[in-house]
Amino acid sequence: MNNTVADSTQTALKQFAKGDYLLYQNRNQEAIVQFQSILKKLQRTANRSGNFVAFGESL
Length: 59
What we know:
This protein is mainly α. It has helices spanning 4-24, 28-49. The N and C termini lie far apart (33 Å).
């Protein structure tokens, strides 16, 4: 069985949780960097697969 989707989902959730925890600690600049890193990875994935619509684009 292929667990790639489950594994990548878990990774993304951990990365988001890290950013959320940084916000909780009032480490806002570090949190912004963390969230921007997630968005960059998402954009790279979208460019490769063509399955995602970029932010601000209509369907």
